[in-house]
């Protein structure tokens, strides 16, 4: 399939990457975005400033030919730095090889690179154009936007819905229209926790805490994390219940914010002289998981990225999963007989993996905010790495499968991870140190329960 006219709604990371791949296949691509051009205006407050890029996202960006530009934005983070309340620091590597790192990257910086590459590939990008709803019987999208190039009249116009790819985010109006029309099973489950981003400023142009780590302040029912920026600052994100005794609901004034940070995060509070002002200048964001059992309608419409399968941010895989959609769909468009078949194959093959990463992400939140504080956590992590060294074809830690092994589907990582967790707990049932583990028993359990990868 080549030479077709393809509309894409949503010029975020997934929509823009998909536009590049399709344009390079010879298609005519029009990309519609509700916001203004982020290369010329500041992005709205509340959207994440930086994200964690890992193997799946990197593979997708390499396919688009943009990694040379992207590398200049990357700050490697080979491990977590855990901050105890008393100031004690514990560094936990993510993997055990040099290439097993994740990277902090600016969301607007990456999106701008993709927009530039899309325009260079011949994609026509139309900003200020909002998709309002989809009419499947008449085969068009109701659009709103004052742009003479797309024939808008009084701000409203119709976009033909054929081979249309919807990458319009977690709150996708097009997904909701499809669900309303088809009655498909779809859930949008919001967490009872929210988030707020604040800034840990640079000091004389330098990072005030370790640059090459993802910092975590785990506090049981909530946590703080920090990702480094190129200018020496950190984007600090507080994840906290929306209501309750320790919640956003109780942080109603500057004094309450300062008391809260002094109690739970004193080391970082001392580095943020404008904490309260910064806190109240940013909105409290909501987080949720979208699980939808229908992503496509014939050759009319296909959902990708967050529009199809939004997840919470606690595994650092939301962007990577959305970017991975693009090469997966691109490959199917080359192997299937027509667009409808490719769309149907994409949702059938991809959905089990997106369900799996959604579940693993919620589990990772519990680990990040709570489990990492338990004494046995370190033993299990060390044993996991030791088993990988001894049995590299059979035992790969689940985090590594998800983050560093893009050839392993999420669903397989989820299932193997469950089995491996059982093995780890069996081996450490009466053990408190790595040297006391029975590795003969480990070899037997692994051979019995884990096929070679």
List keywords for this structure.
453 residues; alpha/beta; FAD/NAD(P)-binding domain; 6-stranded mixed beta sheet
Explain the overall architecture.
This protein is of the alpha/beta class. It folds into three domains: 234 residues, 3-Layer(bba) Sandwich (FAD/NAD(P)-binding domain), CATH 3.50.50.60; 91 residues, no CATH class; 76 residues, no CATH class. Helices cover 39% and strands 23% of the residues. The chain contains 15 helices and 19 strands. A seven-stranded mixed sheet has the order 6-5-14-15-16-13-17. A six-stranded mixed sheet has the order 8-2-1-12-19-18, with helices on both faces. Helix 11 runs parallel beside helix 14. The chain is globular. The model has no long low-confidence stretch (mean pLDDT 94).
Topology:
Layout: E1 5-9, H1 13-24, E2 28-33, E3 50-53, H2 55-63, H3 67-71, E4 75-77, E5 79-83, E6 89-93, E7 102-106, H4 107-120, E8 124-127, E9 130-135, E10 140-144, E11 156-160, E12 164-166, H5 173-182, E13 186-200, E14 214-218, E15 223-228, E16 234-241, H6 254-264, H7 266-269, H8 275-280, E17 285-292, E18 296-297, E19 301-303, H9 306-309, H10 318-335, H11 339-369, H12 375-390, H13 398-404, H14 410-427, H15 439-449
Parallel strand pairs: 1-2, 1-12, 2-8, 5-14, 12-19
Antiparallel strand pairs: 3-7, 4-7, 5-6, 9-10, 10-11, 13-16, 13-17, 14-15, 15-16, 18-19
Helix pairs in contact: 1-4, 1-10, 2-10, 10-11, 11-14, 13-14, 14-15
